[in-house]
């Protein structure tokens, strides 16, 4: 009975596979939104003010960072929790593939969130005259919370790794 239960539990990891496929659909949706933004901006590039163009480009950079985050979580999550990817030797392989454990992935996700938050905060500073002071303070507090959280997670991960080096 125990053997059956353990085998069933082990097979349940495949329930995550559709979630990673769903992430690829989210990546496609994000790419569509990216190109929608690009096609919206390009015809008006000479009419836009410099700050409006910078805001649009920052928005596109934001989408690129989120896309990279989706790819990282999708591939490393699949490799860590479902099954290793069988990639032919003559095809291009991402350098980090198979090297991101859950701790490293968590730190990369936190760093990506900080980068995305930084871009969002920069966009707000570009339009600072239109933002109420109390809202601005909350944006900065939330961003600093992300930064502090990422820093604490990195320190804890470093302490954890150093603690296991002696074993």
UniProtKB/TrEMBL annotation:
<feature type="transmembrane region" description="Helical">
    <location>
        <begin position="109"/>
        <end position="125"/>
    </location>
</feature>
<feature type="transmembrane region" description="Helical">
    <location>
        <begin position="12"/>
        <end position="32"/>
    </location>
</feature>
<keyword id="KW-1133">Transmembrane helix</keyword>
<comment type="similarity">
    <text>Belongs to the UPF0114 family.</text>
</comment>
<keyword id="KW-0812">Transmembrane</keyword>
<feature type="transmembrane region" description="Helical">
    <location>
        <begin position="53"/>
        <end position="75"/>
    </location>
</feature>
<feature type="transmembrane region" description="Helical">
    <location>
        <begin position="137"/>
        <end position="156"/>
    </location>
</feature>
<keyword id="KW-0472">Membrane</keyword>
<dbReference type="Pfam" id="PF03350">
    <property type="entry name" value="UPF0114"/>
</dbReference>
<dbReference type="InterPro" id="IPR020761">
    <property type="entry name" value="UPF0114_bac"/>
</dbReference>
<keyword id="KW-1003">Cell membrane</keyword>
<protein>
    <recommendedName>
        <fullName>UPF0114 protein H6A60_08580</fullName>
    </recommendedName>
</protein>
<dbReference type="InterPro" id="IPR005134">
    <property type="entry name" value="UPF0114"/>
</dbReference>
